[in-house]
Design goal:
Layout (H helix, E strand, L loop, with lengths): L1 H19 L3 E5 L3 E3 L4 E7 L4 E4 L6 E16 L2 E14 L3 E5 L3 E4 L2 E4 L3 E6 L11 H8 E7 L10 E9 L4 E9 L6 E6 L6 E6 L2 E15 L3 E5 L3 E13 L5 E11 L3 E5 L16 E9 L3 E2 L5 E11 L15 E3 L3 E9 L2 E14 L3 E5 L3 E6 L4 E6 L3 E5 L9 H6 L2 H4 L23 H29 L1 H22 L4 H20 L8 H10 L4 H16 L7 H21 L1
Parallel strand pairs: 2-10, 22-30
Antiparallel strand pairs: 1-3, 3-6, 4-8, 5-6, 7-10, 8-9, 11-12, 12-16, 13-18, 14-16, 15-16, 17-20, 18-19, 21-23, 23-26, 24-26, 25-26, 27-30, 28-29
Helix pairs in contact: 6-7, 7-9, 7-10, 8-9, 9-10
Length: about 575
């Protein structure tokens, strides 16, 4: 009897030990798959738990799940339990992706799975079922990348156009990008399609319809063989099968497929070294070059602008303009660079300018030597150099130029009086002649802190009061904004939308600062009443309200440049008049 009891206890203890050992694992259907295949992931546990937390599945799209299944068995007196959470994943890109840790809480303890690495390759060929809509759709939908030039020069423009070809029996219900090309070795800009238009064409000798998804302008920044990364799409389609209805028409079924444009390579040629000018700075295209001075006759300390402009077609954003070599008597400031560039499938077109502000210091005549600009023309495969004309700056009034060489030695210093402020007699005294203790400097240094400390305390109180004056600070800020927006309106003359938006903000902030009201309280009657209560004349008030009406009408009706100029001058005048009358 005792032996039976011991045997039963041993069996129960062994069964309890087997039951108490927790197992929580992640199992995948495959560790290597194509970007057009799907992956199944099962999170399995041998004991029931709570608070299951799946990984983020970064790099994948969850196309199914979570599906939960539970299994309980009792075989030959041995109990087993299994619980599984299943997910179906679609990879978003090629490369090595990782499925992170999942978590489950069992009897108060948190268990985690081991991360799994998945290798995703390009699209693979899969066995096809003639009645499978996915297989039918993959045969009838194709993504193509067309490159306008396979052997461009460095910094020469070319385009890549992505077209989606669809057979006439297949309908596309929508798509989204999975893997977009990065164009790492190119300067790139996408040309947005305002609306998708369907064209008739052919693919592999068969009639197809196609739509242009994206056009991208590229300027290669490296030489040699460069790779244009593929574009991958997830597409929802209605694909035909081999089955037919009672009328003999093919039955279509919905399917979701992944298509990828083939990888394209271009061989980028280096610019030739033969004949390359010394001042060449990377300009590639076809350009004109101008150098213009805003004035050629002026007085000393007056400013003039010297503008260098390259305009035409080419890599306008990717090169620097030459620097002018000017006489030392002309003070030159750092240039202001301006680019007016339009980007289309033909490349960049427009202008690249550098404006130098120059201030002559002395009277005289100063020639600005010709400035040379060089560029490479890929059409002729030659370098071309353009040169400006010499510009002479005549400074009519101002201090004379310092004489040079021998003449300067012959002119007495007293006669020129240019260094009269320099004392030739220093009148030095011995350091031990006067005592510092008890001197004026001693008492000044002693008294100064006593005077400065009360002033610092007073200044600190004033500063804190200024910062704590919420209402005053708000009004000062509104006044500052009004001046700023008035300046923005002046800069936007000619652009109706930007001009009247800035002018309206200027008027509203001006009212906030002067009348202490908010935008929501700005009815015409209240504005008129408040201005007249403050002593503003009826005529000035009416002019201000008319400006507000002009800003409102400009939203719906076109306005000429003359009208905008008139409204700007009127706003400046009315604000000045209100300031005076207030």
């Amino acid at each position: 009897m005792k032996m039976k009891l011991k045997f039963l206890l041993i069996v129960l203890f062994a069964g309890f030990s087997a039951w108490s050992q927790v197992e929580f694992d992640a199992v995948v259907s495959k560790e290597k798959l194509g970007v057009n295949e799907r992956l199944r992931v099962d999170f399995e546990m041998n004991q029931d738990g709570d608070n299951f937390r799946p990984p983020s599945f970064q790099g994948f799209t969850v196309v199914g799940g979570p599906n939960q299944s539970i299994s309980k068995q009792w075989i030959n007196g041995k109990a087993s339990f299994s619980k599984t959470f299943s997910y179906f994943l679609q990879p978003n890109a090629t490369g090595t992706l990782k499925i992170g840790q999942a978590e489950i809480e069992i009897d108060g303890t948190v268990y985690k799975t081991i991360p799994i690495e998945i290798t995703v390759t390009g699209a693979v060929e899969k066995p096809k079922d003639p009645n499978d809509p996915v297989a039918a759709a993959e045969d009838n939908v194709h993504l193509v990348a067309e490159v306008s030039k396979n052997d461009p020069y460095l910094n020469e423009a070319f385009t890549v156009v992505y077209k989606l070809y669809v057979s006439r029996e297949t309908a596309v219900n929508g798509w989204n990008e999975l893997d977009a090309p990065k164009f790492a070795d190119f300067w790139s800009q996408s040309i947005d399609e305002k609306q998708f238009k369907v064209y008739d064409g052919s693919y592999d000798g068969k009639p197809y319809r196609y739509v242009i998804l994206r056009r991208t302008l590229l300027y290669p920044q490296k030489t040699g063989e460069l790779t244009i990364e593929p574009l991958a799409l997830n597409i929802n389609v209605e694909a035909p099968t081999n089955r037919r209805d009672i009328f003999g028409m093919r039955i279509t079924r919905p399917a979701k497929i992944t298509v990828t444009a083939p990888t394209r390579k271009v061989n980028v040629k280096a610019l030739p070294e033969d004949g390359k000018p010394e001042n060449f700075s990377g300009a590639v295209g076809n350009f004109d070059f101008d150098v213009v001075a805003s004035k050629t006759k002026l007085d000393a300390q007056e400013a003039l602008d010297l503008t260098l402009t390259a305009k035409g077609n080419g890599n306008l954003k990717l090169f620097t303009l030459p620097k002018p070599k000017l006489p030392s008597a002309l003070e030159v400031y750092e240039p202001e660079n301006e680019q007016d560039v339009r980007v289309s499938l033909n490349g960049m077109a427009g202008s690249n300018s550098a404006r130098y502000t120059i201030v002559p210091q002395q009277k005289g005549s100063y020639p600005i030597p010709p400035i040379r600009f060089s560029y490479f023309d890929p059409a002729t495969e030659q370098y071309k150099t353009l040169s400006s004309d010499e510009i002479v700056i005549d400074v009519e009034n101002g201090p004379a130029t310092l004489a040079t060489s021998d003449k300067a030695d012959k002119i007495p210093v007293e006669e020129t009086k240019q260094f009269a402020y320099i004392k030739s007699d220093a009148k030095l005294k011995p350091m031990n002649q006067d005592r510092f203790f008890g001197s004026t400097a001693f008492w000044s240094l002693l008294v100064t802190p006593v005077v400065l400390i009360p002033l610092a305390i007073l200044f600190g109180r004033k500063r804190r009061a200024y910062q704590n004056d919420v209402k005053g600070n708000r009004l000062r800020k509104a006044d500052k904004l009004a001046r700023k927006y008035l300046g923005d309106a002046k800069k936007s003359l000619g652009d109706q939308t930007a001009f009247y938006l800035a002018l309206e903000k200027c008027l509203h902030n001006y009212l906030k600062a002067r009348l202490n009201i908010q935008t929501s309280e700005m009815s015409k009657e209240r504005i008129s009443q408040l201005l007249q209560d403050r002593g503003v004349t009826v005529e000035t008030t009416a002019a201000f309200l008319k400006l507000l009406e002009s800003c409102e009408f400009a939203r719906y009706t076109p306005s000429s440049s003359d009208a905008m100029q008139h409204d700007y001058e009127q706003a400046s005048r009315v604000i000045s008049e209100i300031d005076k009358q207030l």
